[in-house]
Amino acid sequence: MLKLACILAVALTAATPALAKDIVVKMKNQGAGGSMVFEPAFVKAQPGDVVHFVPTDPSHNAETIPTMLPAGVAPSKGQMNKEFVLPVKTPGVYGIKCLPHYSMGMIALVQVGNGPSSNLAAAKAVKLPPFAQRRMTPLLAQAR
Ligand SMILES: [Cu+2]
Question: What share of the chain is helix, strand, coil (3-state, %, to 5)?
């Protein structure tokens, strides 16, 4: 019996990578930051974590902003009204947008690692649509 418990303990440890976290970001019609928002809009993650963008309200998607990704990270895209799962392995900042509400400023920023982010200066130089820029600028100011 003790032997079985030991085997189970080892199996459970193997199935749970050390410190890897699942982080949930909600896609909402209305939030503390206004209408059409990701909540939270700024996420700090570590390499190996998985960020889940969950449409708690209808008519949203989440996808990467291709010009705001660490070098070597391919753009990826979630479908409308579906959860978008973003595993983050490479340190740096990841810009996220909801395609239908991008022009209304529905964006988020994920910082992976503790910084300094290698692509932060490049991300700050990217020009977004005005409402998206208005929300992204303070998020970039929080990033390291
Ligand atoms: Cu949206």
Answer: 25, 30, 45
